[in-house]
Amino acid sequence: MGMVSTRRWTAVLALAAATVACMGQALTKQPASVYHARRVALAGELKGGVAILFAAAEPVLDFMPYRQDEDFYYLTGWNEPGAALLVEGANGTERGYREILFLPTRNLRAETYTGPKLDADSPGVTAATGVDAVEPMTALATDLNHMIDADRKLAFNLWTQPASAQARAVIGFTAATLGEDQSPTAHDVTTLTMPLREVKDAGEVDLIEKATAASIAAQRAMFRVVKPGVTERAVAGEMTAVWMEQGCERQAYAPIVGSGINSTTLHYSANSRTIEDGDVVVVDAACEFSMYASDITRTVPANGHFTARQREIYDIVLGAQQAAMDAFVAGKSTINDYYRKDPNSLDTAAYNYVNTHGKDLHGQPLGKYWLHGLGHMVGIDVHDPANYPAVLKPGMVFTIEPGVYIPEEKIGVRIECDFLVGADGKLIDLDAALPHTAEDVEAAMRGK
Length: 448
Ligand code: GLY
Ligand code: MN
Ligand code: MN
Known about the structure:
By secondary structure, the chain is of the alpha+beta class. It contains 13 helices and 19 strands. The chain has helices spanning 3-26, 32-44, 70-76, 108-114, 125-129, 138-150, 165-178, 190-198, 202-225, 232-245, 308-327, 346-355, 438-445, and strands at residues 50-54, 84-88, 98-103, 133-136, 158-160, 186-188, 250-251, 256-259, 280-284, 287-289, 292-293, 297-301, 334-335, 390-391, 397-400, 403-406, 411-414, 417-421, 427-429. Strand 16 and strand 17 form a beta hairpin.
């Protein structure tokens, strides 16, 4: 190898190393073997078919940070745009299991804006990605064409993300090259990844716990900051600073700091009001650590003391959460039974508690002020996918978040905690370290 060529290779290696190091700093990854096992598990569901998943595209607007497609990330841990993953199922064919990561051609001009990337020719790229084979993106259409040409049935056993424009493009191109009467169709691959994503492995639980620890720290900061005269947005800002200090890359959803009447709007996120004396403030705000979310709500009195009526409503909501926890049986209880048709749902247990405790100003039960499902799965998405109402099993992480919202009284109360179903079937409250009761919330606001 001559001098020029040696220098070029040294530069490429340095770039690859810098890229990997940079990605390593950005996100905590699970071992490559974990993502590989997930791809093999997906292949086991394909019945000889082929799954093609595309990475998220880079956002067009400069102020929007990049976030990887969730299913793509779950299967690869790869956090760069423009890639595609092909997984070929082992069952039902003689071809056997195969996986290929397709990486786009590097765009050196774009890289001056967004930083260096790896492509299929970068030294060490296979090890860096952890995928058996890495090819240039230009090979995807050719590979797919050859695969379908060799087995025309495959055209009807393709799986991809339903909303992916790239999938439509490559499948349309393949159809055009193979002839109209062999037009490939694609099934929704998220119906196969969803059951895999529902049960979290130990590494995922660890990441959710990191997101939760940072979210707890931010909620503690919130207890110190909320007072009359402070804007809702300033509270969100203080919490955001804590998330970033704790190594989280972003909020898990738009932070909700709803004071006074805003406490009764479920997903209020304008955060544009100034908090007033006598308000309750619903603070539903949490962050994401290495792509995994937390989801926590606490409701606090603006001046540090709940009124008797606010306290009564608070205690009913807390009682509803406890009723759901008491009713929990792993493998039997369900969550997110919006219409409360399932007698085994935790929604039913919590709703019944609310509807049999307390009254509104007109002497009516409070059930009608309950406006949403009791909870949902949490994972790479704060609202992780599941078939609701979902039976709760060991390894699942979900919220229990009862709420009562009475606009007439300008009182909204939501208490939201994240729970892991342990291997023994018992519930583990992931934000147990954060105050739950009205007394403990008031004490925290006094700095206790
Ligand atoms: N933070 C949104 C939710 O609780 O579902
Ligand atoms: Mn939630
Ligand atoms: Mn929430």
